[in-house]
Design brief:
The protein contains 12 helices and 12 strands. Helix 1 crosses helix 10, helix 2 packs across helix 10 and helix 9 crosses helix 12. The chain starts with a helix and ends with a helix.
Amino acid sequence: MDFYSKYFNLAIEGLLSNKFRVFLSILGLALGIASVILVMALSLGASESIRNFYHMKSGWYIIKPDLLSFPDAELKYDTCKTIELNCRGVKTVVPYKITKRKFSRPSCEEEMIVGTTEVTLNQNIKKGNFFTKEDVMLSGYVCVMVESSMQLNPLYRCFWSVREPLGETAHIENIAVKLVAVLEPDPFGQGFGINDIIMPVTTLMNITGDRTLTRIEVKMPSMKSDEEAVELLRDALKIDYGYKYNHFNIESALEGARDKAETVKFSNMVLLVIALLTMSVAGTGIVNILIVSVCERTLEIGIRRTVGATGREILIQFLIESSIICFMGGLAGILIAYPSVKGLIGVINKYGLYNISLSEHVNWPLLVSFSLIFSVLLGLIFGVYPAGYAAKLDVVECLRESEGD
């Protein structure tokens, strides 16, 4: 223990003799460590969002017209009842009609309106009450929006001219609709988005004058395979559409999750490569400062070798110096990363960027321990060459070069 304590003190003295250079090396490594932590935190948050999506959409299937192959295909609202009556064990049928309509207020543009039913709600209500089954049955002229700080949110353009928009009315093509609820952004980015205006599907059909849907989502009972569920839904479509049943696509809702998972995986890989490049630049700086330090301290090395220090001891001293620099860089990186991760996740969740909300429950003990261990390992790796170079210096050459200087 005294042996390592001795060379730890020598390493500290050596580093203090080049404070500014050491500071720059620590700063470079801190930025690299902060980048790695940031990538890991965002990756964990995105992965939790994907896992939640799998949980929410497991057993759900989507029916929508194949407009690419059959431009005239129309999905009827009455098909919802056909599915309920003819698909054994079906749990939930949710119609969606999505269209754009112009609000009468001059500040409004064509807004995205989503017509659906009360059972579709899976996010928290901030104010008011979501529309009810009676509103759907009676085609109530009510609507719901999602709150956001973004000025582009239609809640600002169409309702925010008053202090409290809840209970106020706006006109869609001269038809008055009342704002009955304001939703919080979906914590996992799978619900209604900040640009959506939600209302009963029957109301939207009255406004548009047609009873066609954009898609139908169906919650099926447990099946042996997706093919079995799809075949059951296809049989229901045959009742309403006959030979035209193949004008519609039926797919598992998890297909979207798989695509999103691949996108998240690719994004994480790109960010990780960038972070590792930052780390390599910082590592190059550490190697450089240690090589310069060795060259400037040849007299010290020569004297120590003369009084009996072995090459192994010189090697250990410089490895300790490298590890201290990297450890300090790791601590600084954690201090930089903590507010950065909190801030970035907060911005994404607040403004609904990319329609995904990342988990705020970051496993900091894991990230901190990983960062510190990773930093020390980097110190050992980046310090091997400079330390080996110092250990192999010839005693006579060290003293001769010092006399020449």
